[in-house]
Amino acid sequence: MPPPDTMFCAQQINIPTELPDILKQFTKAAIRTQPHDVLQWSAAYFSALSSGETLPVKERLEMPVATQKTDTGLTPGLLKILHKQLSPKGTVEKAELEQRWKELCLPKEQLNSIIELGNFGTNIVWIEFFALGCSALNGTITTSLKCACEILTADPEGGAARIPFETFTFLFTYLNKFDGEMPQDQIDSYLNTLKEEAKQQFGMVQPLNFTGLKRPKLPN
To answer: How many Cα neighbours within 13 Å face the side chain of 148?
Structure first.
């Protein structure tokens, strides 16, 4: 026998006071992030929210990357999310990186390509993966370093995008390993020159210091 129809009135329905704000913030986050798979991303969003982890949310809506054939690949905004989630650990397990990558609805083929290029194993040094992620977005060393500065900087958006000289040195040297056309003595000479400029900027480097450089493309 079917249960009798139940009549509800406003007094009988209890709506948690925090629910409207949770749904509002979720909707705004989804609009900014534009996930390719809304359901998969939503599961990651609420899981992170409930555990107090960094949310898989872009800081702002991004325009499509001109070099991408589809809108499903890595973008600066998504790389910044991964950096916030994984950089505090220094070294991350490949399985966790794969999970975070999946939560952002990114193609597994692109992740495998970066891992293969970096010859990464089970444990991955995050800053090295981050550097190759910037390379995957931009191609040339100069534009990759500019992207890295814009993601890593503590400056406000639209500012100088400064990063510590030591961080720049690591990224520059690491990416040059995959280029192979710049001799070590030239690398050392350039960094020594840039170090003098950084001293005038409280030990910081910004894109204006190096965007005039011409660099060949990194491997795809």
So the answer is: 32
